[in-house]
Amino acid sequence: MAEFNKVVIFGVGLIGGSFALGLRAAGAVEEVVGFGRSPKSLQQALDLGVIDRAGINPAHELSDADLVLLATPVGQMPEIMARIVPYLGPETVVTDGGSTKGDVVAAARAAFGERIGQFVPAHPIAGAENSGAAAARADLYRERKVVLTPLPENSVLNVAKVRSAWEWCGAQIYELTPAEHDRVFAAVSHLPHLLSFALVHDLAVRENKELFFTFAASGFRDFTRIAASHPEMWRDICLANKDALLLELDSYRAQLDELHQALAAGDGRRLEEIFDTARTARRDWAEGKR
Amino acid sequence: MAEFNKVVIFGVGLIGGSFALGLRAAGAVEEVVGFGRSPKSLQQALDLGVIDRAGINPAHELSDADLVLLATPVGQMPEIMARIVPYLGPETVVTDGGSTKGDVVAAARAAFGERIGQFVPAHPIAGAENSGAAAARADLYRERKVVLTPLPENSVLNVAKVRSAWEWCGAQIYELTPAEHDRVFAAVSHLPHLLSFALVHDLAVRENKELFFTFAASGFRDFTRIAASHPEMWRDICLANKDALLLELDSYRAQLDELHQALAAGDGRRLEEIFDTARTARRDWAEGKR
Question: Which reaction does it catalyse (chains A, B) (predicted)?
C-alpha cells in the first residue's frame, strides 16, 4: 500500500510533472490526477504516464485526496485556491511549488480562512531550462533542495506529509519562515536575475550594440545566462517579492557606490580586498557544493 | 623556411606559452626564446617544449628577433619595454597580450619614443581558468578573437606581421582603436566582473551569510563564476581601464535606478519590457555564437 492513495496536481508542467513522476517512481502514490488550463498539456501528461487521469471537476476529486500540489505560476494560485477550498477533505493537505512565499501565504490565508492549517507552503529549488510536461523527470528533485515554510497553524502531521512527499522524490528538506525565504531568495536568485537583465538591456539599447556583443566572451556568457529567462515569469517574481528585492537592490547599489568610490580614487587596496573576499566566499561555496 | 625565424616571448604562461605552441604547431617559427621572472616557469616551459631556449640577456636576443610578444601582466610591461627597446633590431616588431590597451599604449609611447611604430598592440580574447606554462595549448587561440589596436605610426607591414602570427595560431583578427577597445571591454568584460565580485562580497560580509549561500543555486553559480577570478589581476585591469569602466558603471547604475523605480512603482509593464529586450538580445547573441 503506497503512502499516498491519491495526489492531485494543478499544473502538469516541469514542476508538477516531475513531482508526480518522482512519487510514482518511488512507489509512493496509487493515483495521480492532473488539472491544467491546456488540454494539450494534459493529454501530453497522460501520454507520458505523468498522470493517471485528467481531472474534470475539482469538486469530485478533492474530498478523498491525500495531497494537492499547486504547481501553476504563482499568479494563478489565488483563483485555484478559491476554487478548491470548499471541496477539500478534512485530511487533505495542500502545498505549492511557488518560488515566492509571502504572496502565496497571503493568498492562501484569504482563500483557506480557518482551514489555513491545511496549507503547507513549499518551494522546490529546481530550475531547469526547459518547461512543460515533456521536460518532467522522475529524478528532477533528487539531491535538490526543497524549502518548506510552515505556518503556525500547520499541524506537525500536515508538515510531515509534505516533507515526506518531497523526500520520496529524493529532495533535501529545509525549513524557513516565509519572510526568511523571501529575503534569502531575493538575494541569491531574484537580484542576480535583475542584475543580469539590466546588463544586457544596457547594451541592447545602444546604437552600436553590435560592436559590444561582438567581443562579449565567456565571462559575459556566464554572467548573462539568466538574462535569457522568461520575462513574464520574472516580472511576476519581482513584483511578488518586491519588498525584499528592493531591500537587496538597495544593499547592492550601496556596494556599487563603494566600488565606484574606490575606483575613482584609484584605491587598489580596497578593490583587491573586495575582490579577494568575494573570491574566497565564492570558492568556499563552490567547494561546499561538490 | 618558416615565416618567423626567431620569436622572443616575455612571460611563458598560458598566453605566451600558447602563442609559442600555436606558432610551432603551424610550422611558422624556427626558434622560440623565452624570458620570465621565475626560473621554475622557464624550466617548465623548456621541459614541455613550449620554448627552445630560456633567454639570459635581452641584449643578446633582440637584434635578430622577428617578433617579440609581451605576455606578462600589464603592470610589468613598462619596465620590460624600457629594457628591450635599446636592443631591438630595425625589423623587430613588438606586440603584447594585455587585456587593456590605453595604458599599454601610453607605456609603449614612453618607452619606444620615436620607435613606437615597431609596437603593434593586441589583445587575444582567450581567458582560461588555468594559468602557467603547464596550461598552455597549441589550440588555445583556434577560432578565438584577437583584437589588434594599431597605432597611426605602425607601418602596414608591421601590423601584417602581428596579424599573420595570430592567424597562424588559428585566431580571427579584428581591429579597433585602443579607446574603442577599452570602452567595449569595460562594458562586456570588466563591468561584469566588478558586478559579480560586488554581489558575492555583499553576501560574504553578512553575519548570516551561511543562510544565503545555502540556498544559492544554478543561477547564482553562473552569475558569480567570474567572481572566482584573480583579485590582483582584476584590480590591475580595473585601475588600468578606470575611465572607461567608470563610464560603464555610471550607465549601469542609471539602469539599476530605472529598475528600482519601476519595481517600487509596481510597474510590471516596464519590468517586462526591460527583461524582454534583454532576453531577445541575449538569445540573438548566443545564436550568433553558435
Answer: prephenate + NAD(+) = 3-(4-hydroxyphenyl)pyruvate + CO2 + NADH
Residue B132 and residue B197 in one domain: no
Residue B192 sits in the same domain as residue B164: no
Looking at residue A235, its pLDDT comes to 95
Contact A188 B127 (CB under 8 A): no
Q: Strand, helix or coil at A118?
A: helix
**Residue A74 maps to which CATH number?**
3.40.50.720
Q: CA A78, A83, A84 angle in degrees (round to 5)?
A: 100
* 3 state DSSP class of B208: coil
With cell 609611447, the residue in question is B109
| Cβ–Cβ contact A209 with B under 8 A | yes
**B171 plus B151 within the same structural domain:** yes
Pairwise CA distance, residues A128 & A226, whole Å: 11
Closest-CA distance of chain B to residue A5, Å: 32
A228 and A143 in a common domain: no
Instruction: Specify whether B170 is located in the same domain as B205.
Output: no
**Mean pLDDT of successive 10-residue segments in chain A (290 residues)?**
94 96 98 94 95 95 98 93 97 96 97 98 82 91 97 98 98 98 97 97 96 94 94 94 97 98 98 97 87
Whether B17 and B152 share a structural domain = yes
Is A95 found in the same domain as A231? no
The residue of B141, B275, B277, B283 whose CB has the most chain A CBs within 10 angstroms, and thus the best one to mutate to test that interface, is B275
Backbone φ, ψ for residue B207 (5° rounding)? -60, -40
Tally of structural domains, chain A: 2
Characterize the bridge pairing of strands B122-124 and B145-148: antiparallel
Per the structure, the complete domain to which residue A172 belongs is given by 4-176
What would the pLDDT profile of B122-150 be if each residue is shown by its tens digit?
999 986 666 788 999 999 999 999 999 99
On whether any CB of chain A is under 8 Å from the CB of B265, the answer is no
Assess whether pLDDT exceeds 70 at residue B175. Answer: yes
pLDDT mean across residues, chain B: 95
Residues 217-256 of A with CB under 8 A from B: 217-232, 234-236, 238-239, 242, 245-246, 249-253, 255-256
Sheet arrangement for strand A122-124: A122-124, A145-148, A172-175
Cβ separation of B279 and A229 shorter than 8 Å? yes
Within 8 A of A245 by CB-CB distance, chain B residues are: 263
Q: Are residues B237 and B171 in the same domain?
A: no
Domain boundary, last residue among B135, B156, B176: B176
* Angle at A148 (CA atoms; ends A144, A149), nearest 5 degrees: 145
Nearest residue on chain A to B254, alpha-carbon basis: A202
Band (B290; pLDDT cuts 50, 70, 90): very low
